[in-house]
Amino acid sequence: MEVKQRGSALGHKIILFIYKVLGYKFVAFILNFVSIYYVIFSQSTKKSLQSYYDHLGLELTNYVFFQHIKLFAFSIFDRFVSRMKPDELTLVKDDRQVGLSIIESGGIMLFSHFGSWAVASHSLSDNKSKVHVVMRETTKQGITQVESDTTRTNKNGVNIIDLNKGAIAANIQIANAIMNKEIVAMMADRVTDDSKTIDVVFLNDTVRINKNPFVIAKKLNTPIVAIFVVNIGLAKYNIKFKEVQTLDKTPQEIAQNYMNILEIMVKKHPKQWYNFHDFFKQ
């Protein structure tokens, strides 16, 4: 499944220039107008979210859409801030003991396109274990270059395992990382290979998600901790660590356990769901 990317390299460069010159709060003011622009000119995005809101039993008005887009805009902006000046963001960590267990012994950290996951992935370098982020870069080339050009102050503790370089190479790196008691961060809710999916129930409907994290956890007998990064205010995020039960479970059961946790989170924070396609039409 290929998902169209939002934004442009020029737009990102302008926002980052404003941030460097005028600071965070001025960019926060500007993002109101960016969000209004998308509400007016990107009704196709609203249409793609309609099924999600219908499954939640919530009304998707233009004002709700504006709030949803604004939170997404902040998640993108703060992704760059977390690279450039992570101390500007306040990260409140809940259930930290659950997170510490995997930080100290290694395992799989599972993210989704809910909340500002990239903020956490760029803010984990203070952990004892190295973090290997498994991803397939589908962002527009220009935006990718902007991010690559952004000075990163916390790069030493994070390694990218690029799926574009081949599944075999990626699997070897993942296995090596887990055997070395390091952290592997993976996405579960976006299908990138139609042959590697698993069916689960989500919001009373059947959806397909990436089965790889759950198969790996079973084969390598490694724990999974789900991480959710929730925006709770200006430059402030709540990082929640949730253990996913894996003991004596099949990959199918592990996957469903994860989706049950994700469902609880989206019901609490519905506007921080950033899958901008019809997730239920796969």
What does this protein structure show overall?
With 282 residues, the protein is of the alpha/beta class. It has one domain. 47% of the residues lie in helices and 20% in strands. It has ten helices and nine strands. Strands 1-9-8-2-5-3-4 form a seven-stranded mixed sheet, sandwiched between helices. Helix 1 runs antiparallel to helix 2, helix 2 packs across helix 4 and helix 9 crosses helix 10. The radius of gyration is 18 Å and the shape is globular. The protein starts with 8 loop residues before the first helix and ends in a 14-residue tail after the last helix.
Unreliable residue stretches: 1-6
Q: Can you write the helix and strand succession as a string?
A: HHHHEHEHEHEHEEEHEEH
Give the number of DSSP strands: 9
Radius of gyration: 18 Å
Oligomer: single chain
Taken from the alpha-carbon principal axes, the silhouette is globular
Major sheet strand order: 1-9-8-2-5-3-4
Mean pLDDT: 84
Number of domains: 1
- Structural class label: alpha/beta
Secondary structure topology:
Elements: H1 9-22, H2 24-41, H3 43-56, H4 62-84, E1 90-94, H5 96-105, E2 107-111, H6 117-121, E3 131-135, H7 141-149, E4 158-162, H8 167-179, E5 183-187, E6 197-202, E7 205-210, H9 212-220, E8 224-233, E9 236-244, H10 251-268
Parallel strand pairs: 1-9, 2-5, 2-8, 3-4, 3-5
Antiparallel strand pairs: 6-7, 8-9
What tags apply to this protein structure?
about 280 residues, alpha/beta, 10 helices, about 45% helix, disordered N terminus
